[in-house]
Amino acid sequence: MARADLDGRSIKPLTICMIGAGGFIGSHLCEKLMAETPHKVLALDVYSDKIRHLLEPESLAWAGRIQFHRINIKHDSRLEGLIKMADLTINLAAICTPADYNTRPLDTIYSNFIDALPVVKYCSENNKRLIHFSTCEVYGKTIGSFLPKDSPLRQDPAYYVLKEDASPCIFGPIEKQRWSYACAKQLIERLIYAEGAENGLEFTIVRPFNWIGPRMDFIPGIDGPSEGVPRVLACFSNALLRREQLKLVDGGQSQRTFIYIKDAIEAVLLMIENPERANGHIFNVGNPNNEVTVRQLAEMMTQIYSKVSGEAALDVPTIDVSSKEFYGEGYDDSDKRIPDMTIINRQLGWDPKTSLWDLLEATLTYQHRTYAEAIKKAMSRPVASS
Ligand SMILES: NC(=O)c1ccc[n+]([C@@H]2O[C@H](COP(=O)([O-])OP(=O)(O)OC[C@H]3O[C@@H](n4cnc5c(N)ncnc54)[C@H](O)[C@@H]3O)[C@@H](O)[C@H]2O)c1
Ligand SMILES: O=C(O)[C@H]1O[C@H](OP(=O)(O)OP(=O)(O)OC[C@H]2O[C@@H](n3ccc(=O)[nH]c3=O)[C@H](O)[C@@H]2O)[C@H](O)[C@@H](O)[C@@H]1O
């Protein structure tokens, strides 16, 4: 049966240039596009491990519809040609782990702003549609966080719900280099918006709110550097797999809404296949029903991992650490992130489905199956003597 868009028109097969296709979100998007659509993907990245199962063997049902190009977009003259060959470019490439923002601020700013510039330019000059991945971090802190602790207004959604077309972007001072990422993302959003306004670029900007699931980041010492600090899902998974305490930064009081990657990818597919409804828009993509403090997240993950692995949890499963100890000088944090869903709901009729419990159970089952043996082996190896 021919695929139809939300307005009943049949969808023509597209060629998509996906930059950063080998990452967490890219791997899920490629999987969905191969399994459920006729679209072709030119997959650009410096790594391909997370999409290897889609590239080999050549007998796969979608062979010929996905092509990997090992390209660093910082310096590769093939970029423009690949964008020209495609109907649509999706840019996911970025440094996007908070441990880097204050320790490698230059790399962070270059990656999120400077390196994205040619992509925007080539799309604009060649009249190609662009879906660019920004972040919910562009909202920074909530207005409510500046009110007195006991102010009743803190409970009023007007002071914390984050709306694409109304909320301000509130970052800390320059010396808090945590905001280097958010600020670079904000500027590239403004540039894309301006290309749309002045030069007619067809664009959609996505602001993900803590998408999580299998293949997110890496487990230090197993499929990433031992000293590396991934995002919270992988940090907590790593501690659970090693039977270590989960570290709560500054007491784990910050709040987040987590969304299952598979729900979020449905929203991206709707954007891809409904350009008339998605062009010119900025979309929050999150799950406002899945809010927890980081401490609650740690408690839930501990309980679920115990169920999944059959191992009893530690007597004291968490430990408090200061942000300076954990991330170093210049760290700062978003206090609360509730996405307003009005625009995506109106334009694309999309809503998230999966509860936090269910998504953590699916994800931790994957983590256990994928890493438990490798961790056991690594931990039983004698430490090399100097
Ligand atoms: N996962 C989330 O919840 C989340 C939240 C907010 C924003 N985002 C944004 O979504 C995008 C994708 O995030 P992700 O979670 O998949 O991250 P990821 O780190 O898993 O994926 C990014 C990919 O981009 C590639 N890349 C980076 N620089 C490159 C370069 N110069 N040339 C070629 N490839 C390059 C990396 O190798 C990596 O595979 C990023 O822009 C990120 O800022 C993600
Ligand atoms: O995912 C998003 O929507 C955006 O937010 C993330 O930022 P953040 O949520 O702060 O990063 P996480 O590593 O997921 O941390 C969440 C919270 O857990 C805390 N944390 C993290 C790791 C840990 O071991 N312990 C711990 O308490 C952090 O301090 C933070 O308050 C990242 O910046 C991006 O991937 C993305 O743009």
Automatic annotation (TrEMBL):
GO molecular function: identical protein binding; protein heterodimerization activity; UDP-D-apiose synthase activity; UDP-glucuronate decarboxylase activity
Name of the protein: UDP-D-apiose/UDP-D-xylose synthase 2
Organism of provenance: Rhodamnia argentea
CDD domains: Arna_like_SDR_e (cd05257)
InterPro entries, A to Z: Arna-like_SDR_e, Epimerase_deHydtase, Lipid_A_modif_metabolic_enz, NAD(P)-bd_dom_sf
Pfam families: Epimerase
Keywords of the record: NAD
Residue ranges occupied by any NAD-dependent epimerase/dehydratase domain in the UniProt entry: 16-286
GO cellular-component term (any): cytoplasm
GO biological process, one term: UDP-D-apiose biosynthetic process
Entry-linked Gene3D superfamilies: NAD(P)-binding Rossmann-like Domain
